[in-house]
Amino acid sequence: MHAAAGLLALGCLASVLWSGLVERPVAAAFGCLVALGELTRRAQGEGREGAPLATAGALAYALLGDVAGRPTQHGVAQTVAVVLAASLLGSVPHVARGNGPVLDHLARRLLTVAFAAVCFRPPAAQGTFRDWDGSAHALLLTGLLALTALCDAVLAAAPAHARTGWPFGPLLREQLRGVVGITSAVCATGAVMALAVAVAGLWALPVFSVPLLLTQLSFRRYAAVRATYRQTIASLARATEIAGYTPAGHARRVAELSAAVGRDLGLSGPELTVLEYAALMHDIGQLSLVDPVPGGATAGLPAAEQRRIALLGGAVVRQTGVDAAVAVVVERQADPCGEQPVAARIVRAVNAYEEKARDAGPGGDLSALEELRLATAGDYAPEVVEALARVLSRGSLTSPAAG
């Protein structure tokens, strides 16, 4: 993907340098909009679409047919070149702070904008849409943006698959779920911008930029609250470690490995969040024990004692105000696997694996996995154990024995 985006960028820049820039005021207006969006983008990891204004502006420029009733003349090459130059310009402050442009992020934008421009600009230059009425033109833009969103989802899933080795299908489904949220809003804003500029001229750009900037500010505040919420849960989870009931880092390792198994099994974003929180707090019920279990290894306890600890843990989670779904997973992690929700099956298997691999010493990860496979029917869900084996085989996490 990076190679394709690089070749596309070089080709478009060479074409614009050779033929010159047309309609410079329009190019400058949309370039400033994209640069502003990049300047105000969120930090990496705060959301699927970190620079919604920049993306909306880039798509609007690609789908721009008229400016105040006058046909536009810029082609695909100029569209990509302007978006590239503006994105790099807006990234300068981020680079100075050591949080420069992510290659995946920039490559995706160039390729998706190029896809939209290739679909729209050549027919528009030939006057194909000149006699269409407003509703037909709006439907055309909506259809093109839907295809562009699908293209972006594929481009987002592909590098994640190559980087992590996770199955492409679940990654693509997760990206497609995101299309319903912020991606659809960004695409709709891009379409409205293009239609508004066609009628009112370039003055429509600041009018439609302000609401998206305010929305982005709201998302940033929500992301900050969510990050604080997760830190609070992680701090609560460490209570068992500080009190000496579980080894240091146990909850974190179980949470990381559980999340990886959940992704492999195709869980959605909200389901993965519940799974991560439940995995972090899965041992909180041990605080009720008078005598700590050696090493915090509850997997070897009688089933009745495991259920009692799990129920006590769920009660503690409910008292903290955490989502009730998290408490349900904590409470049911000791139930027979056939009666458990998927998240509880994952936490149960991963916790047992982590405990067994840690106690077995070097090379214990393989023996722990084999022990889970050979366990009594109903102890651990086979599909979860196999997903765990796939995650471990990809080597994306350090084994407990090594850590």
How would you describe this protein?
The protein is mainly α and 403 residues long. The protein is built from 16 helices and 2 strands. The protein has helices spanning 2-19, 24-39, 52-62, 76-96, 103-125, 134-164, 168-200, 204-237, 239-242, 250-264, 269-280, 303-320, 324-332, 342-360, 364-373, 382-394; strands spanning 66-67, 70-71. It has a two-stranded antiparallel ribbon with strand order 1-2. Strand 1 (66-67) and strand 2 form a beta hairpin. Helix 3 (52-62) runs antiparallel to helix 4 (76-96). It is elongated.
Ordered list of secondary-structure elements with their pairings:
Layout: H1 2-19, H2 24-39, H3 52-62, E1 66-67, E2 70-71, H4 76-96, H5 103-125, H6 134-164, H7 168-200, H8 204-237, H9 239-242, H10 250-264, H11 269-280, H12 303-320, H13 324-332, H14 342-360, H15 364-373, H16 382-394
Antiparallel strand pairs: 1-2
Helix pairs in contact: 1-4, 1-5, 2-3, 2-4, 2-8, 3-4, 3-5, 3-7, 4-5, 5-6, 6-7, 7-8, 10-11, 10-14, 10-16, 11-13, 11-14, 12-13, 14-15
Spans of at least 5 consecutive residues with low confidence: 396-403
Shape: elongated
Distance between the termini: 34 Å
Largest sheet: 2 strands, antiparallel
Task: Label this structure with key terms.
mainly alpha, 2 strands, disordered C terminus, two-stranded antiparallel sheet, 403 residues, 71% helix, elongated
Give the gist of this structure.
This protein is mainly α and 403 residues long.
